[in-house]
Specification:
2 domains, PyrdxlP-dep_Trfase_small, 386 residues, PyrdxlP-dep_Trfase, binds pyridoxal-5'-phosphate, alpha/beta, three-stranded antiparallel β-sheet, Aspartate Aminotransferase, domain 1, pyridoxal phosphate binding, aminotransferase, 13 strands, seven-stranded mixed β-sheet, Aspartate Aminotransferase, domain 2, PseC
Length: 386
Amino acid sequence: MRQEFLTYGIPLIEEDDIAEVVDSLKSNWITKGPKTNEFEKQFAEYVGAKFAIAVNSCTAGLHLALVAAGLGAGDEVITTPMTFAASANVILHTGATPVFADIDPVTMNIDVDQVRQKITPRTKAIIPVHMAGHPCEMDEIMELARENNLFVLEDAAHAVYTKYKGRLIGTIGDATAFSFYATKNLATGEGGMVTTNNEALADKIRIMSSHGMSRNAWNRYSAAGSWYYEILHPGFKYNMTDIQAALGITQLAKLERMQGIRQEIAERYNEEFSQMPELEIPPEKEYARHAWHLYILKLNLEKLTIDRAEFIEELKQEQIGTSVHFIPVPMHPYYRDTFGYQKGDFPQAEKTFERIISLPLYPKMSRQDAEDVVDAVKRIVEKFRK
Ligand SMILES: *Cc1c(COP(=O)(O)O)cnc(C)c1O
């Protein structure tokens, strides 16, 4: 057994990352400035989008995209129950109502047939979430959205490297929001990016990300700028800083290498865990390039004498940190009480929730760390199989 506890998730920060941040600190531009502009340009090129707007979180990006799309009171937005609360909270922030459509239990992504059933005359948008880094069935979602005139906002918090049918996530929906939170595949501490090919939408998002102001600080205070600005809307304070963008630039440059390590660890886990009938490994559909943000193991509980909570406790005894992604949003007290959700309303999400464990998976892990996870999981399964 391991001597030291294996932390569930940590970023890979190297000398180049540190040097770029120090360069920001020495440059006098510590908030949004040249590095943020450069990171936006590089990120847009990377995903192949016409526009990219850097923000201080994915949550801010999701919120801005909904505001820019004109969402508000009386509107309904469909999303998945199997996501982080932010995907639904932002709907409420606009005054609109979140409506949940149950998941496909295999991919854990939103089930397009369930979305179809939840569409009403008030439905204005869909927020699909590319769970764990596995893409949603975007062709089907886009077709349904076009038929019903719905805005599609992709929550790509897990999907910075994900491809759907050979195409990088970032240009399929009307807008896409990425997260650069500390544990995500590309980490700037806090941070996010919205990409879109729609110029009018990009302009609105950009203006709303900085108080609704007609000119941002870089334009105003640089040599090319002027002191004059106008407030066009009551906007938000959601911009990225150059300290974050410094990390964004160096992290994007090493994304391919970091993804290679994630892929290797995920393949090693798959190789071992696919041998055990007590476990179900994460799927990779033929249309997917998985970004392996999360490695979500599903327990076949009927073949085990312990439940998921006990399995997590056993892993902890083995010095392995884990997490659970996610507690279905409608099960949280606010959502449950406000919307009156009951057990059984989202049967697939609820059943899946009972059997999932996210294992450590990040580029800072060593091969030995991954072997320790494999050995621990195997020991627990052997001890508690029926
Ligand atoms: C992390 C996460 C977010 C929020 O990202 P932030 O950058 O922390 O705001 C949104 N959606 C999902 C699915 C996430 O995992």
